[in-house]
């Protein structure tokens, strides 16, 4: 994974240029990342952890843009709700200052995912109750 991220090292740090570079990165490497994750939460955590390291150590200009990486991987369906939530839960337990920083950057996104997940669970419960009543 670190070799893949080298493509992003020279990306401009201003928002428009960064997003264009991120789009190019996903166009180039997205399918490989999706194949690596393959619906597996542990593999997703490996990818996100490498992104954390990349933003903190290699390309420090992206330190405050980590949440954009995470959201972009979510929008391209490389990461699923439960994967992002699992990452957030693992970071809540961490004493690492970078982890806390990234968690704070992603708070609004994570809150939104958790609210969606709770809403879906409620809808499923209602559907099950309706099915039981019709039987």
Written overview of the protein:
α2 packs across α4 (66-75), α3 (41-58) crosses α5 (81-92) and α5 (81-92) packs across α7 (107-134). This protein has helices at 2-5, 15-37, 41-58, 66-75, 81-92, 97-105, 107-134. It has 135 residues and is an all-alpha fold. The protein has seven helices and no strands. The model has no long low-confidence stretch (mean pLDDT 82). The radius of gyration is 17 Å and the shape is globular.
Topology:
Elements: H1 2-5, H2 15-37, H3 41-58, H4 66-75, H5 81-92, H6 97-105, H7 107-134
Helix pairs in contact: 2-4, 3-5, 5-7
Summarize the structure.
The chain is built from seven helices and no strands.
């Amino acid at each position: 994974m670190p070799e893949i991220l080298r493509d992003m090292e020279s990306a401009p740090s201003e928002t428009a240029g960064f997003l264009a570079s991120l789009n190019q990165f996903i166009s180039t490497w997205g399918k490989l990342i999706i194949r690596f994750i393959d619906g597996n939460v542990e593999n997703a955590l490996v990818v996100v952890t490498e992104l954390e390291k990349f933003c903190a150590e290699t390309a420090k200009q992206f330190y405050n843009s980590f949440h954009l990486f995470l959201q972009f991987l979510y929008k391209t369906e490389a990461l699923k709700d439960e994967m992002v939530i699992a990452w957030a839960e693992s970071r809540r337990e961490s004493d690492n200052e970078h982890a806390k920083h990234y968690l704070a950057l992603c708070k609004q996104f994570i809150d939104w995912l958790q609210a969606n997940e709770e809403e879906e669970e409620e809808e499923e419960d209602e559907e099950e109750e309706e099915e039981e009543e019709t039987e």
